[in-house]
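G.,

No rush on this.
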Amino acid sequence: MPEPSSKQHQRNTSLYLQELLASESYSFHWRRYPTERQRQLPRISVARVLAGYLLRRGETFNEKGIRDKVSRAFSSREPIIPEDTLKLFIQAFEISDIDAETLRKLRRGEGLQRVAVRDLPEPENGLPPPPPYQIIGLREYHYIGSDGNPTIHRTIRDIRSTADRLESIRYTFDTDQVDVKQINGGTPSDPYLLPNGLSTVDITLPRPLGIADDHSIEFVTRFKNRELLDPNFRRVAHRRIEGLSIRVEFHPECLPAKVWWAEWKDYRPPNDEVISRQPVALDAEHAVYHRLHAAERAVVGFEWEFSGLEG
């Protein structure tokens, strides 16, 4: 199993740095330098922020060298962020002490990733049309029973409407594995089958949502556990998910020997292999927890190993 490497630390730092600079807290710095290129985070504008900072300090610099620093830092294949480059970003963008320390810890390999962006292939038949809402927060609570199998799962989905009048949303699940026991924040229809064999319910919202209106819905499902399931919980993000939290709690009579935060290449065999993982410790409630700022085209979650079993 691959453990985190210095390359992975650099990647984690790069992704989180880009996420920060694209946020409202810091984007005003580079938005002062508009560019014709349609990009969420235009590198030329970022380079101008760095150059402007050095210019105000009276330091000499090479403009191409600054652009090269940004290109290397934001490389999608193998980003490189030396310590002095990270310091320059922190100072030029006036990054807060908390965010700056998070970046330093990621670079040193002391923290779990905060952003997961990979190249997960779309389903064979393509992705369905995007729903008329954005997921602005997703919290997953997974409970493992005394036999090592999951018992209950809670999902809290925070959404923001992109429609003029959003009256219902769809929740899809696999009836071979789970039963939906409870839905809070809406009234579900009777379950019905989709062409792909999965079941779904249409949930009527308590009130219609207009554009940019927010709402929160909770789903509680119970596992049937006809057979021993794989020792992991994975969240697939074909599209961007912001504010993804995952918590896995273990029964005190069935505690794992090891737990990792992990990324998978895919969720579909034969490519469902772990590509990166980092050990984590159980807390006083026999649980592990991690929150991502964003996940996109990625598969992330926890995997674990019980004593006497090979992971």
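When you get to it, here's the other one too:
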Amino acid sequence: LPAIEAALEPFEPRPHWGKLFDFEGVDVSDRFERFPGFKRLAHLYDPTGKFSNRFLRRIGVHA
């Protein structure tokens, strides 16, 4: 997976949220222009991270 992502990097791909990908949080933030708004809403409606999961923590939505 990392080799495929590296080969596609020149095209600045946006990962599908329901598929496997190896991008880190900073990369996801760079690819989705509305990601900061999503993070704000996640913290507004789930301030304690009750409904968070490993994926959301990995991409930086919750600590």
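The first helix runs from residue 2 to 8. The radius of gyration is 13 Å.

Enjoy the weekend,
O.
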